[in-house]
Design brief:
This protein has about 350 residues and is an alpha/beta fold. The protein has 9 helices and 13 strands.
Length: about 350
């Protein structure tokens, strides 16, 4: 059995001025900078169908409350932007002084994950531009000032150059490097976004987030797997700190391969004001035996599942619906009918 990440093909996004394509146009929803582990990356065409078609702009959900997996990179970015905007709106416009808030409420911490094409600086910079340029959050009627904190000087320098080339000339975005975040940059921003920090940078990340308090902090595409968090990759204070960020958006395409069949699925968390599936992690699988396959919700989970747990759930679904299993069920029913045992009370 093989377990893979499955993702939709590329699509261009126009936010403000036209944005030139990256050298590599392929779009793979893979976890950024994650170690390879046992996961292979795949690209499939055509893209997964949404739960319900609609003529309205991309939305995180259907009208019936079922979450809608993104069918393209553009939709994933739109969903993440919507969730982040909703999450940041209230704390940025809270009129209650920070000193009067309870200690556990003083600093809102959010987390969002949209895997990038690859682990190159250009892919991260392009994704950050698409998500955070012109995000639309305001503070007291004016555009909120966001500080984008990059994991390396190389990525920061590339971001400063490319953001300007791609048409972002506003003063609402500033840039800094995680290893040396200027105190005045933290003091002058309304919220900070920490992009793809590495596992070795967690202590520097914690120091910067604490210095930002009580302003909102966003952890975007951390460069470690969730398994690292679950398996003791962080200890003590660091583990509690990493776990203090509330995931408002996360998307992962999945595929389990067996001997005779395969099963496509999606693990999605999309929180927008408590709606659209609430705080659940939703596992969806592609319906079989249909001309136009759609994704069906098969499980809602209170906590984030590990890759191993998702793999087991999808594998069990695949086994339950395999031709071999169905044949065995038919034979058991046939034997029951012949012997007269079926239907007896």
């Amino acid at each position: 059995m093989a377990f893979s990440l499955l993702n939709p093909p590329p699509s261009r996004i126009a936010l403000g001025a036209p944005v030139p394509p990256l050298p590599n146009p392929s779009f793979l929803f893979s976890q950024p900078r994650f170690p390879p582990l046992h996961i292979a990356l795949l690209l499939r065409s055509p893209p997964p169908r949404r739960v319900q078609s609609s003529s309205t702009p991309p939305s995180p959900t259907t009208t019936e409350g079922n979450p809608t997996p993104p069918a393209s990179r553009e939709e994933a970015v739109a969903q993440a932007r919507s969730c982040l905007t909703t999450a940041l709106r209230k704390p940025l416009n809270n009129t209650l002084p920070a000193r009067k808030l309870k200690k556990q409420q003083r600093q809102p911490r959010f987390r969002a994950e949209i895997p990038v094409v690859d682990d190159s600086p250009g892919s991260l910079v392009r994704l950050a531009f698409d998500v955070f340029s012109g995000l639309g959050v305001s503070r007291k009627g004016s555009p909120a000032k966001l500080l984008l904190v990059w994991p390396s000087s190389e990525e920061m320098e590339l971001a400063v150059r490319e953001f300007k080339n791609w048409g972002d000339s506003s003063s609402a975005l500033a840039h800094a490097q995680l290893d040396s975040v200027p105190p005045d940059a933290l003091g002058s921003c309304d919220a900070a976004v920490f992009l793809a920090p590495g596992r070795a940078q967690v202590e520097k990340l914690r120091a910067a987030v604490n210095a930002l308090d009580p302003k909102p902090a966003v952890l975007f595409n951390p460069a470690w797997s969730f398994e690292v968090e679950e398996e003791g990759g962080f200890g003590g204070v660091a583990k509690g700190f990493v776990g203090s960020f509330n995931v408002v958006y996360s998307f992962m395409g999945l595929e389990v391969k067996g001997l005779l069949s395969k099963k496509k699925g999606v693990l999605l968390r999309c929180v927008e004001g408590g709606r659209f599936g609430g705080d659940s992690w939703v596992l969806m699988v592609e319906e079989e035996d249909e001309e136009a396959p759609e994704f069906k919700v098969v499980s809602r989970l209170k906590r984030r599942p590990t890759i191993g747990e998702v793999e087991n759930m999808m594998y069990n679904l695949m086994v339950a619906n395999s031709p071999v299993t169905k044949s065995a069920r038919f034979l058991r029913e046939l034997v029951s009918n012949v012997t007269g045992r079926k239907g007896k009370q």
